[in-house]
Amino acid sequence: MTLVGSILIDGTAYAMILFMITVGLSITLGLMHVVNMAHGAFAMLGGFAAVELMSRLGLRFELALVIAVVATALVSVPIERFVISRVYGRPELDQALLTIGVAFVAIALVNLWLGASFSSIDLPAWLSGPVDLGFRSFPRHRVAVIVLGCLVSAALWLFIGRSRFGVKLRAAVDNPGIAQSVGINTSLLYSLAFAIGAGLAALGGIAGAELLPMEANYPVKYLVLFLAVVAVGGQGTLFGTFLAALLLGLVDTASKYLLPDLASISFYLTMLLVLALRPQGLLGRKDVA
Amino acid sequence: MVDIVTSPARTEPARWRAVVGPELAVVAVGLLAAIIFPDDLGFITRINILAIFTLSLALVVGQAGIGTLGQAALFGAGSYAAALWALHVTPEPLSGLLIGALAGAVVATGSGLLILRTRGLTLIMLSIAFAQVLLEIANKAAFVTGGDDGMADIPVNPIFGVVAFDFHSRVGFGYTLAALVAVYFCLRRLVASPFGLTCRGIKGDRLRMRAVGAPVFRHLLCVYALGGAVAGIAGALSAQTTQVVGLSNLDFELSAEGLVMLAIGGVGHLGGALLGVPAFMIVRHVTATINPNHWLLVIGLLLVVTVLYLPGGLYGVFDKWRRRTERSGS
Question: What's the ipTM?
Answer without folding.
Answer: 0.85
